[in-house]
TrEMBL record, chain A:
One of its GO terms (molecular function) is carboxyl- or carbamoyltransferase activity. Belongs to the AccA family. Its main location: cytoplasm. The keyword Transferase applies. GO terms for cellular component: acetyl-CoA carboxylase complex. This is Acetyl-coenzyme A carboxylase carboxyl transferase subunit alpha. It comes from the Bacteria. Residues 40-293 form the CoA carboxyltransferase C-terminal domain. It is found in: Cytoplasm. Residues 6-50 form a coiled coil. PANTHER family: ACETYL-COENZYME A CARBOXYLASE CARBOXYL TRANSFERASE SUBUNIT ALPHA (PTHR42853), ACETYL-COENZYME A CARBOXYLASE CARBOXYL TRANSFERASE SUBUNIT ALPHA, CHLOROPLASTIC (PTHR42853:SF3). Component of the acetyl coenzyme A carboxylase (ACC) complex. First, biotin carboxylase catalyzes the carboxylation of biotin on its carrier protein (BCCP) and then the CO(2) group is transferred by the carboxyltransferase to acetyl-CoA to form malonyl-CoA. The keyword Transferase applies.
From TrEMBL, chain B:
Zn(2+) binds at residues 34, 37, 53, 56. It catalyses: N(6)-carboxybiotinyl-L-lysyl-[protein] + acetyl-CoA = N(6)-biotinyl-L-lysyl-[protein] + malonyl-CoA. One of its GO terms (cellular component) is acetyl-CoA carboxylase complex. SUPFAM superfamilies: ClpP/crotonase (SSF52096). Gene3D superfamilies: 2-enoyl-CoA Hydratase, Chain A, domain 1 (3.90.226.10). Belongs to the AccD/PCCB family. This is Acetyl-coenzyme A carboxylase carboxyl transferase subunit beta. Residues 1-10 have a biased composition (Polar residues). Pathway: Lipid metabolism; malonyl-CoA biosynthesis; malonyl-CoA from acetyl-CoA: step 1/1. The lineage of its organism: Bacteria, Pseudomonadati, Planctomycetota, Planctomycetia, Pirellulales. Its EC number is 2.1.3.15. Component of the acetyl coenzyme A carboxylase (ACC) complex. Biotin carboxylase (BC) catalyzes the carboxylation of biotin on its carrier protein (BCCP) and then the CO(2) group is transferred by the transcarboxylase to acetyl-CoA to form malonyl-CoA. Pfam families: Carboxyl_trans, Zn_ribbon_ACC.
Length: 321, 287
C-alpha cells in the first residue's frame, strides 16, 4: 500500500512510489525495467528511512492523522479472529465514534473498545471524525461493566482528535462522563490494555485510557491539547501549530521518557498506513503477550498496581523543609 | 484532520474573559461596576458581602485565601504540601518561558501554584479542604495541583474525613506541562475512586469558571455537587463549540442553571449559604 495522497514531507517519496507503480504496470518488462524498479525500490527504502527516522512533532501529527492510517475497525479485522459488535449506551443512543464488542485474539476472549474515525466521507460524518459524544463514553462504561462481570480483559484503542464539542454534548454531560469513565476504569477488576493507535486527543482519549498497560504506536501522539488549539491560545494563531507541536512533547519518545506510556510499538517502515497487515500483526503480538502477562495477576493486584502506575505520574519539586 | 479542535485546556483562554481582573480580590478603587447588573456598587459593601453584588447577587471572583476564610472556621485551616512546587518538565516555551511565567504568577498572586490544600473545620466538623484559584494560570491543573489533590484525598481516605474541593479553574489541564497535566485527571480521579470505595463523602463545589480537564475529572465526581449561581461550567470552551458547529449558543449555555436543568448538579448554593450547606450535608451523610 502506498502512502496515498498528501504529506508535504513525502513529496520525493510519493514521486518514487508513483514511478515504481507506473513501471510495474507495464506487462512486458525488460531486464532494464526490472533493474530500474529494483533501484527505485532501494532508493525508496532509503528515503523512507531518512524521513521516518527523524519525523518532527508536527510531521508526526500528520502521520497520526493520515487518511490511510489503520483505524480501530481495521485492527479488529486484521488482528482479531472474531468481532461481535455490541451497540448502544442503554440510555440515549449508539455513538458510532465509539466502537465496542466481544472479540477473540489467539486464545483470549476479550472486550474491545475503540474510537472509530471512518474511512469514507459518509462514515466519517456518521462518527463525527472520531469525536465521541457523552453516549460514546456511556456506551464504553456499560461494556466495561460487562467485561468486569464476566472477567473479560478490556482492550481500548485510542484514536480521537478529542471529545466532541457541541451543544448536545454539553447538555448530556461530556465532562461528567469522561470523569466517570476514568473513575470506573481505575477500579476495574479485570486486565485493561490501552493502545494509542493514532491521535490521543486530550480528555476524549484519556476517557478510555486508564489501563494496566498503556502503549502508543511509534508515530501516534498523545496530548493535553491539539497543536492548533494550543497555538491559538498561546501564540494567538493556529499557524503556529508546528511550534506548539514541538513544545508539547507528545511524540512516542517523549511519552516514554515522561513515563506516561509503558511501551512504544514500532511501525512498519514509512508508517502504519503503508502496511496495515504488518502493523496489525505487531499489535497482535503485543496484545497477546501482554494479556498473558496480566492474566497471572489477581484482580486486586491489577487494581493496586494500576493505581500506583498513575499515582506516580507528574513532575514537581519537593523540598524537605 | 483538524475539523474539530476540542480540548480540555482550550477552555482556558475563553474562560479568561469571564474571570474578573487577574488580581487578588476585587479591583482597585472605591466603586465597582457590576458585570451582572451594570450598577456602580460600593466596593466595601461588596467585600462585606463575600464579594457578591448587593444589588443582583452577581458573584465576583474570590481568591483561594478568601474562600478558606469564608468556608472554614477562623484559624482552623492547616495548609498541607505547600512545599510541593511546580517546575518546568517540558522546558516549555511559547512567547514566554513557562519557568518565568510560574515565577510571575507566584509573585502576582502570592500562591505557589493554583491550589491550596489542607485540613480545617466547617462549623466544628473536621474536613479535608482544597480550593483552586483562577488567578493562577486560570486555576489550571498541572503536576502540582494533581499531586496536592491526590495527597489530600489519600489523607482524607486514611483519616476518614469528609472532602471539600472548591473549583475555580477555567484553565482545565495546564498546557505548559503537556501530557503530564492530562494524566493528573486520571490520577486524581483514581484517588477519588479509592476514597469512594472507602466510604468517603466528597462535596464538589463548582464556581466561576470550571472548565475542561478540571470539569472532566474531580469537579464532576462529587457525591454532592454544588455550584455558585451563574458560574461558567462545561467541558469545551464556548468559542470552540461555536467554531465547530457554526451556530449561536443558546442563552445561559454552560451556566450553573443550565447544568441544574440538565441534571448534573445537586444544588445551586449562594456564597453566603455555602458554609451552612456544607455542614448540613456532612451531617446528613453521617460523617
Ligand atoms: Zn450586580
Amino acid at each position: 500500500m502506498s502512502g496515498g495522497p498528501g504529506l508535504e514531507f513525502e513529496v520525493a517519496i510519493a514521486d518514487l512510489e508513483s514511478r515504481i507503480a507506473a513501471l510495474e504496470r507495464q506487462t512486458d518488462r525488460s531486464d532494464a525495467t526490472e533493474n530500474e524498479i529494483r533501484e527505485l525500490r532501494m532508493e525508496l527504502v532509503n528515503q523512507l528511512r531518512d524521513v521516518y527516522g527523524s519525523l518532527d512533532a508536527w510531521q508526526t501529527v500528520q502521520v497520526a492523522r493520515h487518511k490511510n492510517r489503520p483505524y480501530t475497525r481495521d485492527y479488529l479485522n486484521l488482528a482479531f479472529d472474531e468481532f461481535v459488535e455490541l451497540h448502544g449506551d442503554k440510555h440515549f443512543g449508539d455513538d458510532r465514534a465509539m466502537l465496542s464488542g466481544f472479540a477473540k485474539l489467539d486464545r483470549f476472549k476479550v472486550m474491545v473498545l475503540g474510537h472509530q474515525k471512518g474511512r469514507t466521507y459518509k462514515e466519517r460524518a456518521a462518527c463525527h471524525f472520531g469525536c465521541a459524544h457523552p453516549e460514546g463514553y456511556r456506551k464504553a462504561m456499560t461494556k466495561m461493566r460487562l467485561a468486569e462481570k464476566y472477567q473479560l480483559p478490556l482492550i481500548c484503542f485510542i484514536d480521537t482528535p478529542g471529545a466532541y464539542p457541541g451543544i448536545g454534548a454539553e447538555e448530556r454531560g461530556q465532562a461528567q462522563v469522561i470523569a466517570e469513565s476514568m473513575f470506573m476504569m481505575s477500579r476495574l477488576k479485570t486486565p485493561v490494555i490501552c493502545v494509542v493507535i493514532g491521535e490521543g486527543g486530550s480528555g476524549g482519549a484519556l476517557g478510555i485510557g486508564v489501563g494496566d498497560r498503556v502503549a502508543v504506536l511509534q508515530h501516534a501522539y498523545y496530548s493535553v491539547i491539539s497543536p492548533e488549539g494550543c497555538a491559538g491560545i498561546l501564540w494567538k494563531s493556529h499557524e503556529h501549530a508546528p511550534k506548539a507541536a514541538a513544545a508539547l512533547r507528545f511524540t512516542s519518545k517523549d511519552l516514554r521518557r515522561l513515563n506516561v506510556v509503558d511501551d512504544v510499538l514500532e511501525e512498519p517502515l514509512g508508517g502504519a498506513h503503508r502496511d496495515h497487515h504488518q502493523m496489525a500483526s505487531r499489535l497482535k503480538t503485543y496484545l497477546s503477550r501482554t494479556l498473558a502477562e496480566l492474566e497471572q495477576k489477581t484482580s486486586d493486584e491489577l487494581v493496586d498496581s494500576r493505581y500506583e502506575k498513575f499515582r506516580r505520574i507528574g513532575v514537581f519539586l519537593e523540598d524537605a523543609s | 484532520m483538524s475539523t474539530v479542535d476540542t480540548n480540555a485546556s482550550r477552555a482556558q483562554a475563553e474562560a479568561a474573559t469571564n474571570v474578573p481582573p487577574k488580581k487578588r480580590g476585587v479591583p482597585e478603587g472605591l466603586w465597582l461596576k457590576c458585570p451582572g447588573c451594570g450598577a456602580s456598587v460600593y466596593k466595601k459593601e461588596v467585600e462585606q458581602q463575600l464579594n457578591v453584588c448587593p444589588k443582583c447577587e452577581h458573584h465576583f471572583y474570590v481568591s483561594a485565601v478568601q474562600r478558606i476564610e469564608q468556608v472554614l472556621d477562623a484559624g482552623t485551616f492547616e495548609l498541607m504540601n505547600d512545599h510541593i512546587r511546580p517546575t518546568d518538565p517540558l522546558v516549555f516555551t511559547d512567547r514566554r518561558n513557562y519557568a518565568d511565567r510560574l515565577i510571575g504568577e507566584q509573585n502576582r498572586t502570592g500562591l505557589s501554584d493554583a491550589v491550596m490544600t489542607g485540613t480545617g473545620m466547617v462549623r466544628a466538623r473536621r474536613v479535608a479542604f482544597a480550593v483552586t484559584d483562577s488567578a493562577f494560570i486560570m486555576g489550571s491543573m498541572g503536576s502540582v495541583v494533581g499531586e496536592r489533590l491526590t495527597r489530600l484525598i489519600e489523607k482524607a481516605t486514611e483519616q476518614n474525613l469528609p472532602l471539600i474541593i472548591v473549583s475555580a479553574s477555567g484553565g482545565g489541564a495546564r498546557m505548559h506541562e503537556g501530557i503530564l497535566s492530562l494524566m493528573q485527571m486520571a490520577k486524581v480521579s483514581a484517588a477519588l475512586a479509592r476514597y469512594d470505595e472507602a466510604g468517603g463523602l466528597f462535596i464538589s463545589v463548582l464556581t466561576n469558571p470550571t472548565m475542561g480537564g478540571v470539569a472532566a475529572s474531580f469537579a464532576s465526581l462529587g457525591d454532592l455537587v454544588f455550584a455558585e449561581p451563574k458560574a461558567l461550567i462545561g467541558f469545551a470552551g464556548p468559542r470552540t463549540i461555536k467554531a465547530t458547529i457554526g451556530i449561536e449558543l443558546p442563552e445561559g449555555f454552560q451556566t450553573s442553571e443550565f447544568l441544574l436543568e440538565h441534571g448534573y448538579i445537586d444544588r445551586i448554593v449562594t456564597r453566603k449559604n455555602l458554609k451552612t450547606e456544607i455542614a448540613r450535608a456532612i451531617d446528613y451523610c453521617g460523617k
